[in-house]
Design goal:
- The chain starts with a strand and ends with a strand.
- The strands form two sheets. Strands 2, 4, 5, 6, 9, 10 and 11 form a seven-stranded mixed sheet that branches. A four-stranded antiparallel sheet has the order 1-3-8-7, with no helix packed on it.
- About 0% of the residues lie in helices and about 50% in strands.
- It contains no helices and eleven strands.
- It is an all-beta fold.
Length: about 120
């Protein structure tokens, strides 16, 4: 079992940056594919980015491509989401998720474990 704890959310002006972190428990973090999702009020939870267990494969939603970067440090059991050039439409609760097998990483239904989420608010 994996427990995930997100941090790094907050209030930022449009054009600013934030870095989210997701700390995972357990000794097998390096075998998990990791994803970031977000959910705005009144909307469904949507895919943002994902990274393979080794860190060399990354995937992004079109809406964040070129602005966000996902990375991981397996020695620290942590996955990161660097968010640059933030826009008001990026405002949402951001969730970290993990899956311990090959899966379609763009779908929230593929993930077995979820964090509690961290709020990101971008003001115009």
């Amino acid at each position: 079992q994996v427990q995930l704890v997100e941090s790094g959310g907050g209030l930022v002006q449009a054009g600013g940056s934030l870095r989210l972190s997701c700390a995972a428990s357990g000794r097998t973090f390096s075998t998990y594919n990791m994803g970031w999702f977000r959910q705005a009020p009144g909307k469904e939870r949507e895919f943002v980015a994902a990274i393979g267990w080794g860190g060399s494969s990354t995937y992004y939603a079109d809406s964040v491509k070129g602005r966000f970067a996902i990375s991981r440090d397996n020695a620290k059991n942590t996955v990161y989401l660097q968010m640059n050039s933030l826009k008001p439409e990026d405002t949402a609760v951001y969730y970290c998720a993990a899956v311990g097998r090959a899966a379609y990483l763009y779908s929230r239904d593929s993930y077995d474990y979820w964090g509690q989420g961290t709020q990101v608010t971008v003001s115009s």
